[in-house]
C-alpha cells in the first residue's frame, strides 16, 4: 500500500503533536504562564505551516486549500486571543488547571479538521473533537454551579444535534453510497429520490443550525454563554461558529449544490428568524454576557446571508465577516474579562453605570467594540456588514438585505445602551469597579481594538484576501 | 451476495432465547399463582438486620468508581480500532503498522496523563 | 432473507424512541441514554446499508461513532458528577440558575 501524501495534513499533525506535548509538559511545569506561552509558540509554528500545505490527500478525504486555510487562521487567531485573555482570568476564577490550554488546543484542532474535511466521516470526527472539548471548557469552573450547568446544557443539546447530524449523514450515505462531499450532489441528482434527499438535507441543516445557533435551534446558546467562563464564551462564540460556517460553505455550496434552491429557501427563513429573535430578545437583557449571547445569535443570522448569496462574493463576505466578528466579539468579551476582579463579576448593565468616570480607557475600548458590533463606520463591523449586504443585493436578494439592515438598526438600541450606561450615569453606590491589570489581557485588547479600527479604515487587503482564497 | 444473507447458523441461539424466556416467565407465573399472599406492615418493610430502616436505600458510591469506570470505557472502546486493523494487517503491511503504533502512542500519552493525575490511586 | 427496509425501519424506530425519550424525560442520565439510543439507531442503519451496498464506509463510520460515543459518555458523566456535587440533583427542571 502506498504512503498517502501527508503534506496537506502537516499543520494538523504538528498541532496534534504539540498539543500532546503540552498535555505532558503541563504535568511537570507548574507555571501556567509558561504553558500559555508554549501554546502560542505552537500556534505560530502551525500557522507557519499552513501556506505550504495546499493539496488533497487520503483520496479526497482531506482538503487543504485557500478556503480551509482562511478558516484555520481564524481558529488559530481565536485560540491566541483566548489564551491571552485567559491567563489571569482563570486564576481569578480559581480554575487554573493546565488542562485548560490543552483542551483549547484540541478544540481548535477539531475545528481545523472540520474546515478541511472533504468527507462526511472526517467532518463528523472533527466536529466531535471540537464539541467534546468545548463541553469540558464550558464547565471548567468546577465549583461554580452556573458553569457546570452551562456545560450540562451544552453537552445535552450538542450530543442531541450530533445524533441528528449522523442520521442525516446516514441518509446521504444510503442515497448515494458515498460519503465524499464532492460527489454527493451529482449522485443525489442521479438517483432521483428527491423527497428523501431533501429530508436528509434538512436533518444536516438542523444539526448545523444547532452548532451555529440559528433560531429556532438557539435555545442552548444564551444559557451556555452566560454560565461558561467569560474567556471560554469568547472562544466558543467565535471558533465553533466559524467552523460551522466553514462546513456549511463546503457541504451546502459544493456538496449539495444541486439542491441549492431548496436549502437556500430554508436558510432565508432561518436567517430572518435568527436576526429577529437575536436582536429583539437582546433588548430585554440586563446581563451583558447574555446580551452578547443574543447578539452572537443575531450575528450568525447576518453571516448566513453570504451563504444565501451563494457566489464567490457572498462566501468571501461571510468569511470576512467571521474574521471581523472574531476581533470585535473577543474584544467585547475581553473588556468583560477586564472587569472581573477578585471580589465580584461585573456583568450587568447596572454594575457598569458610570464606568467611564472610573476607567475611561476600558470604557473607550468597549465603546469601539459596541460601535463595531452595531456596524457604525469607521469600524470593522460596518465593513463586514457592507460587503455582506452588497453581495446579497448583487445576487438578487435586495429585500433580504433591507430586512437585515432594519434588524441592524434595531440592534443599535441595545449596543448603544451599554455605551449610555457607561458614559451617562453616575457610578452606583457600593459597586467596586476594580479592573484586573494583566499584560497579556492588555495585549489582546490592543490587538482586537487596533484590528477593528484598521479593518474599518482600510478594508481592502482583508476583503481582497478573502476573495482571493475563495476564487 | 448483497440481499441474500440469511443467518441460519443463529437458529439454535434463537431457539435458546425463546426457551430461556418462556422458562423464566413460566417460573415467575407459576410462583405468582401458587404462593400465598398475606401482606402486613412489618413484612412489607425493607429488611435491615431486624432494626428499623434508616435513610435512603440508595447509597452513594465513592466517586472513585466513576473515575475508574470512565477510564475503562474510553480505553476499552479505543481497542475496537485494533480489530479491523488486525484482520487486514497482512495485506497493508508496514505503513499500517506504523499508523497503529502512532495511535497507541497517542493512547499512551493519555495513559501517562491519567497516571500522573493519580486517577489509578484508590485513595 | 431480511430485506434492507426492515433494518432501515428498525434503525428509524430506535432513533425515534431515543429522540422521544430525550424530549420527554427530565432525568439527565435518562436523556443521555436516549442520545445513545439515537446513535445506535444510526449505527444499525449504517451497518445494514453498508452490508447491502457492499461498501465498507458505513461500517467504518459506525466504528468511529462507537468510539466517539464512548468519549462522549465519559465527558457527559463527568459533567453530570460535577453538576451533582454543586446541586445534588440530576433533574433538568431543577437546574435553572439561568433563564430569560
Summarize the structure.
The complex is a heterotrimer of chains A (471), B (123) and C (100). Chain B contains five helices and no strands.
Q: Would you give an account of this structure?
A:
- The complex is a heterotrimer of chains A (471), B (123) and C (100).
- Chain A is mostly helical.
- Chain A has one domain.
- Chain A is 76% helix and 1% strand.
- Chain A has 19 helices and two strands.
- In chain A, strands 1-2 form a two-stranded antiparallel sheet.
- Chain A is globular, with a radius of gyration of 21 Å.
- The model of chain A has no long low-confidence stretch (mean pLDDT 90).
- With 123 residues, chain B is an all-alpha fold.
- Chain B has a single domain, classed as Methane Monooxygenase Hydroxylase, Chain G, domain 1 (Up-down Bundle), CATH 1.20.58.
- Chain B has five helices and no strands.
- The longest helix of chain B has 28 residues.
- The termini of chain B are far apart.
- With 100 residues, chain C is an all-alpha fold.
- Chain C has a domain of 68 residues: Orthogonal Bundle (Helix Hairpins).
- The mean pLDDT of chain C is 89.
- The chains are: A mainly alpha (471), B mainly alpha (123), C mainly alpha (100).
- Chains in contact: A-B, A-C, B-C.
- Chains A and C meet through helix 5, helix 6 and helix 9 of A and helix 1, helix 2 and helix 3 of C.
In terms of per-residue confidence, which ranges of chain C show pLDDT below 50 for 5 or more consecutive residues? none
The CATH class of the domain at 26-93 in chain C turns out to be Mainly Alpha
| Share in helix of chain A | over 70%
- What multimeric state do the chains show? heterotrimer
What is the string of SSEs of chain A from the N terminus onward?
A: HHEEHHHHHHHHHHHHHHHHH
Secondary-structure-derived class of chain A? mainly alpha
The computed structural class of chain C is mainly alpha
Overall pLDDT metric of chain A: 90
Number of helical regions of chain C? 3
Name the chain pair with the biggest interface and residue counts per chain.
A-C, 43 and 44 residues
Report the helical percentage of chain C.
over 70%
* Total of DSSP H or I helical runs spanning 4+ residues of chain A: 19
Beta-strand content of chain A = under 5%
The 3D shape of chain C can be described as: elongated
Per the principal axes of the C-alpha atoms, what is the gross shape of chain A?
globular
Q: What about the largest sheet of chain A?
A: 2 strands, antiparallel
Amino acid at each position: 500500500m502506498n504512503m498517502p501524501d501527508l503534506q496537506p495534513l502537516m499543520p494538523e499533525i504538528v498541532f496534534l503533536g504539540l498539543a500532546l506535548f503540552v498535555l505532558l509538559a503541563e504535568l511537570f511545569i507548574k507555571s501556567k504562564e509558561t504553558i500559555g506561552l508554549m501554546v502560542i509558540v505552537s500556534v505560530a509554528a502551525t500557522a507557519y505551516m499552513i501556506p505550504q500545505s495546499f493539496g488533497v490527500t487520503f483520496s479526497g478525504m482531506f482538503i487543504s486549500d485557500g478556503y480551509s486555510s482562511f478558516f484555520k487562521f481564524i481558529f488559530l487567531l481565536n485560540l491566541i486571543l483566548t489564551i491571552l485573555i485567559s491567563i489571569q482570568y482563570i486564576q481569578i476564577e480559581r480554575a487554573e488547571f493546565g488542562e485548560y490550554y490543552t483542551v483549547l488546543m484540541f478544540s481548535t484542532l477539531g475545528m481545523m479538521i472540520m474546515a478541511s474535511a472533504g468527507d462526511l466521516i472526517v467532518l463528523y470526527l472533527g466536529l466531535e473533537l471540537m464539541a467534546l472539548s468545548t463541553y469540558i471548557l464550558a464547565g471548567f469552573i468546577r465549583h461554580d454551579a452556573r458553569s457546570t450547568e452551562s456545560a450540562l446544557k451544552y453537552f445535552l443539546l450538542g450530543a442531541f444535534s450530533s445524533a441528528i447530524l449522523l442520521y442525516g449523514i446516514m441518509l446521504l450515505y444510503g442515497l448515494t453510497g458515498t460519503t465524499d462531499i464532492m460527489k454527493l450532489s451529482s449522485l443525489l441528482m442521479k438517483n432521483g429520490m428527491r423527497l428523501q434527499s431533501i429530508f436528509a438535507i434538512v436533518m444536516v441543516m438542523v444539526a448545523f443550525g444547532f452548532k451555529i445557533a440559528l433560531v429556532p435551534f438557539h435555545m442552548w446558546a444564551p444559557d451556555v454563554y452566560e454560565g461558561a467562563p467569560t474567556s471560554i464564551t469568547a472562544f466558543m462564540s467565535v471558533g465553533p461558529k466559524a467552523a460551522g460556517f466553514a462546513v456549511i460553505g463546503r457541504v451546502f455550496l459544493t456538496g449539495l449544490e444541486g439542491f441549492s434552491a431548496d436549502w437556500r429557501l430554508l436558510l432565508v427563513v432561518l436567517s430572518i428568524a435568527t436576526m429577529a429573535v437575536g436582536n429583539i430578545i437582546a433588548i430585554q437583557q440586563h446581563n451583558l454576557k447574555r446580551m452578547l449571547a443574543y447578539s452572537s445569535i443575531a450575528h450568525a443570522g447576518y453571516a448566513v446571508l453570504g451563504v444565501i448569496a451563494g457566489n464567490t462574493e457572498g462566501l468571501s463576505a461571510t468569511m470576512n465577516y467571521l474574521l471581523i466578528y472574531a476581533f470585535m466579539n473577543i474584544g467585547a468579551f475581553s473588556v468583560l474579562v477586564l472587569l472581573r476582579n477578585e471580589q465580584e463579576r461585573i456583568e450587568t448593565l447596572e454594575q457598569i453605570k458610570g464606568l467611564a468616570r472610573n476607567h475611561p480607557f476600558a470604557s473607550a475600548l468597549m465603546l469601539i467594540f459596541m460601535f463595531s458590533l452595531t456596524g457604525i463606520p469607521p469600524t470593522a463591523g460596518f465593513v463586514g456588514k457592507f460587503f455582506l449586504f452588497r453581495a446579497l443585493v448583487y445576487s438578487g436578494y435586495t429585500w433580504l438585505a433591507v430586512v437585515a439592515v432594519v434588524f441592524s438598526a434595531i440592534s443599535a438600541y441595545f449596543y448603544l445602551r451599554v455605551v449610555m450606561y457607561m458614559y451617562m450615569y453616575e457610578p452606583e453606590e457600593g459597586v467596586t469597579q476594580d479592573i484586573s491589570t494583566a499584560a497579556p489581557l492588555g495585549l489582546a485588547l490592543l490587538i482586537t481594538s487596533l484590528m477593528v479600527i484598521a479593518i474599518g479604515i482600510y478594508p481592502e487587503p482583508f476583503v481582497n484576501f478573502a476573495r482571493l482564497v475563495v476564487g | 451476495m448483497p440481499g441474500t444473507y440469511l443467518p441460519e447458523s443463529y437458529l439454535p441461539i434463537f431457539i435458546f432465547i425463546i426457551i430461556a424466556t418462556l422458562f423464566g416467565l413460566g417460573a415467575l407465573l407459576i410462583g405468582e399463582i401458587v404462593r400465598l399472599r398475606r401482606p402486613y406492615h412489618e413484612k412489607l418493610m425493607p429488611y435491615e438486620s431486624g432494626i428499623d430502616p434508616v435513610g435512603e436505600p440508595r447509597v452513594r458510591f465513592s466517586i472513585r468508581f466513576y473515575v475508574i469506570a470512565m477510564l475503562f470505557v474510553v480505553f476499552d472502546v479505543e481497542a475496537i480500532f485494533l480489530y479491523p486493523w488486525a484482520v487486514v494487517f497482512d495485506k497493508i503491511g508496514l505503513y499500517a503498522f506504523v499508523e497503529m503504533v502512532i495511535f497507541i502512542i497517542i493512547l499512551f500519552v493519555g495513559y501517562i496523563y491519567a497516571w500522573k493525575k493519580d486517577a489509578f490511586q484508590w485513595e | 432473507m431480511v430485506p434492507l427496509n426492515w433494518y432501515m425501519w428498525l434503525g428509524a424506530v430506535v432513533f425515534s424512541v431515543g429522540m422521544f425519550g430525550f424530549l420527554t424525560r427530565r432525568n439527565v442520565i435518562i436523556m443521555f441514554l436516549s442520545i445513545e439510543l439515537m446513535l445506535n439507531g444510526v449505527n444499525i442503519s449504517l451497518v445494514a446499508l453498508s452490508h447491502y451496498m457492499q461498501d465498507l464506509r458505513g461500517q467504518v463510520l459506525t466504528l468511529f461513532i462507537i468510539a466517539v460515543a464512548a468519549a462522549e459518555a465519559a465527558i457527559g458523566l463527568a459533567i453530570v458528577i460535577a453538576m451533582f456535587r454543586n446541586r445534588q440533583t440530576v433533574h433538568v427542571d431543577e437546574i435553572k440558575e439561568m433563564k430569560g
